[in-house]
Amino acid sequence: MKRFDIITEADARALEVGATVVLASGGHITPLARDTLRARRVSVVRDDEVAPAEADLVAAAPVRTVAIGSDHRGLALKRDLAARLRRAALAVHDLGTHDATAVDYPDIAALVARAVASGEADAGIVIDATGTGSAVAANKIDGVRAAMCAEESVARHAREHVGANVLCLGASLLTVERAGAIVDAWLGAGPPEPRHVRRLAKIRALERNRRP
């Protein structure tokens, strides 16, 4: 993330929509820059608000590359969404499945989750019948925060509050149009604010301290 001692109007206009930047302790944002940052959905994190160890909890923004996958139940919806993402000029990694032969959703969810965790993709989308199973499976991969979303508001909340970097959808629950709107809301949401990042750090602590 870029680091500033002062953010001016010119700096704010040069930042990408949805980006996250770091402001040094005691740093300053000019009044005009504040309005521009808000309009461009740029999040400003102060040095003293988020520890360096928590920086990796902020989901990548803006999203340029999406890994997408589905089991056989979500095949048709996956194809439609992949085409939609490409029309939006995003790079799409289609990780399967590629035909109607039955496959197990945990395998596909793991492929997508690992692509996100490794940095191969900025975000991931997994589709099965309801999205629930894929969310459970994807969340077993370190560094992944997967959320099953059936509404636009939930998708936006998942990214802005929980830093969800994998979106799980249910093909039996959604029309193509509804699924597309949910994906747009999720990708268009801003990154978590510092208070949410601190809460994500507590979730990660729970994961690291769990007993076998």
Question: Which secondary structure elements does this structure contain, and how are they paired or packed?
Answer:
Layout: E1 3-7, H1 9-14, E2 20-29, H2 31-39, E3 43-46, E4 65-70, H3 75-87, E5 91-94, H4 105-117, E6 123-128, H5 132-138, E7 146-148, H6 152-162, E8 166-170, H7 176-188, H8 194-209
Parallel strand pairs: 1-2, 2-3, 4-5, 4-6, 6-8, 7-8
Helix pairs in contact: 3-7, 4-5, 6-7
Q: Which structural class do you get from the secondary structure elements?
A: alpha/beta
Number of strands: 8
Regions with pLDDT < 50 over 5+ consecutive residues? none
Question: Can you tell me the number of structural domains?
Answer: 2
The CATH class name of the largest domain reads: Alpha Beta
Total number of helices: 8
Q: So, the CATH homologous superfamily of the largest domain? A: Sugar-phosphate isomerase, RpiB/LacA/LacB
For the report, how would you describe the main beta sheet? 5 strands, parallel
Strand neighbour order, sheet with most strands:
5-4-6-8-7
Q: Which series of helices and strands comes N to C?
A: EHEHEEHEHEHEHEHH
Mean pLDDT: 89
Overall spatial form: globular
Explained architecture:
By secondary structure, this protein is of the alpha/beta class. It folds into 2 domains: 47 residues, no CATH class; 124 residues, Ribose 5-phosphate Isomerase B, Chain: A. Helices cover 42% and strands 20% of the residues. The protein is globular. The mean pLDDT is 89.
